[in-house]
Please model this.
Amino acid sequence: MTAEHASLLSRITQTPGQCGGRPCVRGMRIRVSDVLELLASPVSAEEILGDFPDLEPDDIRACLLFAARRTTFPQVAA
Model:
Protein backbone atom coordinates (compact mmCIF):
# COMPACT_ATOMS: atom_id res chain seq x y z
CA MET A 1 0.00 0.00 0.00
CA THR A 2 1.35 3.40 -0.91
CA ALA A 3 1.58 6.24 1.57
CA GLU A 4 -1.04 8.13 -0.44
CA HIS A 5 -3.47 5.21 -0.22
CA ALA A 6 -2.84 4.88 3.50
CA SER A 7 -3.51 8.58 3.93
CA LEU A 8 -6.76 8.34 1.97
CA LEU A 9 -7.96 5.28 3.85
CA SER A 10 -7.30 7.00 7.18
CA ARG A 11 -10.18 9.31 6.26
CA ILE A 12 -12.60 6.40 6.58
CA THR A 13 -13.68 5.69 10.14
CA GLN A 14 -15.89 3.10 11.78
CA THR A 15 -17.20 3.96 15.22
CA PRO A 16 -19.55 1.65 17.12
CA GLY A 17 -22.84 3.44 17.72
CA GLN A 18 -22.34 5.95 14.92
CA CYS A 19 -24.36 5.20 11.79
CA GLY A 20 -24.76 1.63 12.99
CA GLY A 21 -21.00 1.09 12.89
CA ARG A 22 -20.93 1.58 9.12
CA PRO A 23 -17.88 3.20 7.50
CA CYS A 24 -18.10 6.99 7.53
CA VAL A 25 -16.00 9.88 6.30
CA ARG A 26 -13.68 11.42 8.92
CA GLY A 27 -15.96 10.64 11.85
CA MET A 28 -18.84 12.59 10.34
CA ARG A 29 -22.25 11.08 9.82
CA ILE A 30 -21.66 10.86 6.08
CA ARG A 31 -21.50 7.17 5.22
CA VAL A 32 -19.20 5.80 2.54
CA SER A 33 -22.20 4.01 1.03
CA ASP A 34 -24.08 7.31 0.70
CA VAL A 35 -21.23 8.89 -1.24
CA LEU A 36 -20.92 5.83 -3.50
CA GLU A 37 -24.67 5.72 -4.17
CA LEU A 38 -24.65 9.40 -5.10
CA LEU A 39 -21.79 8.84 -7.53
CA ALA A 40 -23.74 5.96 -9.08
CA SER A 41 -26.95 8.03 -9.36
CA PRO A 42 -25.17 9.79 -11.30
CA VAL A 43 -24.31 12.85 -9.25
CA SER A 44 -20.97 14.47 -10.00
CA ALA A 45 -18.28 14.82 -7.38
CA GLU A 46 -18.64 18.60 -7.69
CA GLU A 47 -22.36 18.37 -6.86
CA ILE A 48 -21.66 16.15 -3.87
CA LEU A 49 -19.06 18.61 -2.59
CA GLY A 50 -21.58 21.42 -3.05
CA ASP A 51 -24.30 19.55 -1.14
CA PHE A 52 -21.94 18.47 1.66
CA PRO A 53 -19.67 21.45 2.35
CA ASP A 54 -17.72 19.54 5.01
CA LEU A 55 -16.55 16.98 2.43
CA GLU A 56 -13.28 17.42 0.60
CA PRO A 57 -12.27 15.98 -2.79
CA ASP A 58 -9.94 13.50 -1.06
CA ASP A 59 -12.92 12.22 0.94
CA ILE A 60 -14.59 11.12 -2.28
CA ARG A 61 -11.37 9.50 -3.46
CA ALA A 62 -11.12 7.75 -0.09
CA CYS A 63 -14.64 6.34 -0.47
CA LEU A 64 -13.78 4.97 -3.92
CA LEU A 65 -10.53 3.44 -2.70
CA PHE A 66 -12.27 1.94 0.34
CA ALA A 67 -14.87 0.31 -1.92
CA ALA A 68 -12.20 -0.96 -4.30
CA ARG A 69 -10.28 -2.53 -1.42
CA ARG A 70 -13.46 -4.23 -0.16
CA THR A 71 -13.90 -6.01 -3.48
CA THR A 72 -10.40 -7.48 -3.49
CA PHE A 73 -10.30 -11.11 -2.45
CA PRO A 74 -7.19 -13.14 -1.72
CA GLN A 75 -6.24 -15.59 -4.44
CA VAL A 76 -4.79 -18.98 -3.72
CA ALA A 77 -2.30 -20.26 -6.27
CA ALA A 78 -2.69 -23.94 -7.11
Remarks:
- The chain has one domain: 3-70.
- The chain has a mean pLDDT of 93.
- The two ends are 25 Å apart (CA to CA).
